[in-house]
Design a protein that fits this description.
By secondary structure, this protein is an alpha+beta fold. The chain has helices at 15-34, 48-54, 60-65, 84-93, 139-155, 171-185, 194-202, 205-208, 213-219, 231-246, 291-294, 309-318, 338-353, 367-376, 387-392, 413-417; strands at residues 38-39, 45-47, 68-70, 76-79, 103-113, 125-134, 161-167, 252-253, 267-273, 281-287, 302-308, 331-335, 358-360, 381-385, 394-399, 405-409. The protein has two domains: 15-170 and 230-318, 2-Layer Sandwich (BirA Bifunctional Protein, domain 2); 331-417, Anticodon-binding domain (Rossmann fold, 3-Layer(aba) Sandwich), CATH 3.40.50.800. The chain is built from 16 helices and 16 strands. The structure holds adenosine-5'-triphosphate (ATP) and magnesium ion.
Length: 418
């Protein structure tokens, strides 16, 4: 029989890697604390309808990438393909709008599923860190959300990232823009991919985001949203830039960014690395002033981003970031003989209860092999226990780094190591 393997496009996080994730996660949590964001956890599954309405039924995500299935009760269920729709649903369902505004909500390590062609930087299950700042319209809010991401990169020692920003305008700007875009695209219709042809009437802006080479060539010279902003949107975008300038953040205005989800209005942005190959977007987001109403709430503005944790890790590795080593076990008890082994077992428990990591031999190894093992796991101290030590009630404690030994009473071990 063949071995069962992990599904294509998924990745295990082995113990040799998981401490890196812990490091990243703790930095994210600390940063969220500094910015006043609180965690909101949502389920991995949602009703498919949420994403059809939230993400948009002409997007790549909905048209090509969702893991959708019917459950045993006949409901259409989808594995989360992005974070925001679920956050907004939970925001409304839990009536968080009754709490003081604005609300800064974050999610961490959220499993995200997209049926994509697996390749470097593109998984079928990846994990996202994201923040949603709900209730405020001002440009400082957009800038603050962006700065939270940039501060995280700085904190994690990642350089070589560039912030790209753009504005895709509000529904009012979109009307003029769509008209201009259709006029431009009309002549190319027969050359476009089938998906884009179907987008032409419903949502032509999606064509700008198409990954097919022939469509990309066509849209190269297409009109860009930034040239069609209404007065309000233009001023808002100018203010976002002014806030970023005031905070000393570097950025480029990139009219090519339209983002692959329908809910965005106004500011959109991506933070891009050129060190991790073609899939360089580590973080992406923008303002979504219409989504909460679209999903059944009041008209409440919001802005947020999603960050791919695997891509972040890849960028950190490309930057040769030094991850703090996970702490090794503090005390290893080497024991020989039945009674000493039992004592080692009990002492290890006692130390752990006192908050000190401890280990002993589970493998019935020789004394020598136990020390070898202690060396391998880089135990900070070893304590040898035989019948003699039991009788005298004292043990020799060896500090492995320099070999320094000292004699201690067994009863005083916990307080010594504490
Ligand atoms: P791309 O243009 O690379 O397909 P996207 O626009 O589809 O990205 P978003 O929906 O903005 O991506 O998701 C937010 C972030 O999640 C991305 O910037 C990226 O870091 C990460 N991400 C998205 N899809 C994947 C994936 N398939 N595998 C790994 N990370 C991903
Ligand atoms: Mg994508």
């Amino acid at each position: 029989m063949q071995n069962i393997q992990a599904p294509k496009g998924t990745k295990d996080v082995t113990p040799a890697e998981s401490h890196k994730w812990h490091y990243i996660e703790s930095n994210m949590r600390e940063l969220c604390r500094l910015y006043g964001a609180r965690e909101l956890r949502t389920p991995v599954i949602e009703h498919t309808e949420l994403f059809l309405r939230g993400v948009g039924d002409t997007t790549d995500i909905v048209q090509k990438e969702m893991y959708t299935f019917e459950d045993k009760g006949g409901r259409s269920i989808t594995l989360k393909p992005e974070g925001t729709a679920g956050m907004v649903r939970a925001f409304l369902e839990n009536r968080l709008f009754n709490e003081p505004m604005p609300q800064k909500l974050y999610y961490l390590n959220s499993p995200t599923f997209r049926y994509e062609k697996p390749q470097a930087g593109r998984l079928r299950e990846h994990h996202q860190f994201g923040i949603e700042m709900v209730g405020a319209y001002g440009a400082e809010t957009d800038a603050e959300v962006i700065l939270l991401a940039l501060t995280l990169f700085e904190k994690l020692g990642v350089r070589d990232l560039m912030l790209h920003i753009n504005s895709i305008g509000c529904p009012e700007c979109r009307r003029d823009y769509n008209k201009a875009l259709r006029e431009y695209l009309e002549g190319y219709l027969p050359e476009m991919c089938e998906t884009c042809r179907s987008r032409f009437d419903k949502n032509p802006m999606r064509i700008i985001d198409c990954k097919e080479e022939r469509c990309r060539q066509i849209v190269k010279n297409a009109p860009r949203t930034i040239d069609y902003l209404c007065e309000d949107c233009r001023r808002h975008f100018e203010s976002v830039k002014a806030c970023l300038d005031a905070a000393g953040a570097e950025y480029v205005v990139d009219p090519d960014i339209v983002r692959g989800l329908d809910y965005y209005t106004g500011t959109v942005f991506e933070v891009i690395s050129n060190r991790i190959g073609a899939q360089g977007a580590v973080c992406a987001g923008g303002r979504y002033n219409g989504l909460i109403e679209e999903l059944g709430g009041q008209s409440i503005p919001a802005v947020g981003f999603g960050m791919g944790m695997e891509r972040l890790l890849a960028v950190m590795e490309a930057n040769e970031v030094k991850f703090p080593k996970p702490p090794a076990v503090k005390v290893y008890f080497a024991a020989m003989g039945e009674a000493p082994r039992l004592k080692a077992f009990a002492l290890a428990q006692e130390l752990r209860r006192a908050g000190i990591s401890a280990e002993f031999d589970h493998m019935d190894r020789s004394f020598k092999a136990q020390f070898k093992y202690a060396n391998k796991i880089e135990a900070e101290y070893t304590v040898a226990i035989g019948d003699e030590e039991l009788a005298s009630g004292t043990v020799r404690v060896k500090r492995m780094a320099d070999g320094e030994e000292r004699e201690l009473e067994i009863s005083g071990l916990a307080s010594f190591f504490a």
